[in-house]
Amino acid sequence: MGTTLDVSRAELALVVMYLNKAEARDKLCRAIQYGSKFLSGGQPGTAQNVDKSTSLARKVFRLFKFVNDLHGLISPVPKGTPLPLVLLGKSKNALLSTFLFLDQIVWLGRSGIYKNKERAELLGRISLFCWMGSSVCTTLVEVGEMGRLSSSMKKIEKGLKNGSKYQDEEYRAKLKKSNERSLALIKSAMDIVVAAGLLQLAPTKITPRVTGAFGFITSIISCYQLLPTRPKIKTP
Fold first, then answer.
1. Torsions phi, psi for 168 (to 5 deg)
2. pTM here?
3. Separation of alpha carbons 154 and 150, rounded Å
4. Sign of torsion, CA 121 106 58 49?
5. What is the pLDDT of residues 14-70, one digit of tens each?
6. C-alpha to C-alpha distance for 204 and 197, rounded to whole angstroms
């Protein structure tokens, strides 16, 4: 009975810890937003209203969030990182920071605080192009980093004379990192399609329903990436 209660408390503590993160709440709202977009298919109705209202609400979570990537832009990079990956990483930070900054002006426009609606809509499109650019940079960075990980994992395999490579702690750590980067690669690549859908760059192929489906999947991936590590419960 005590063990069951301990497990329940630990699980509930993880849920509380998760929901206390502004980023986690934002991604949950994002899943609702794009799920509603998928259901509405761009047609007027309840689902579209949920899509629009959730989109506006999410912008509040992102107020001043551009500072995070601005800090990443000026922060030093790990030693040994190839110059192309450094440039791509810094470009991603610059583009994402610009997107988040312009997104605040879009929120001011849609809230009625900023009166120039045409300017706000233009800045909204520019911000989406910045987000698309940052997703492209992220995709290329993940591809490059996965290549580096694969190379180092092969070196570890060659160095192992006896025993399974899965018993080697360093190999397992790099394998875990590779899996995490694979998931991040899928997410960033799919986000490019989401951005193209929001910008209506290919409206006949990337419909609101396709945009909603891709956006919902990347939101679920983001929610998964933010999950806290489960603590080990000692059993008698």
1. -85, 125
2. 0.88
3. 6
4. negative
5. 888 887 788 888 999 999 999 999 999 989 999 999 999 999 888 888 888 889 898
6. 10
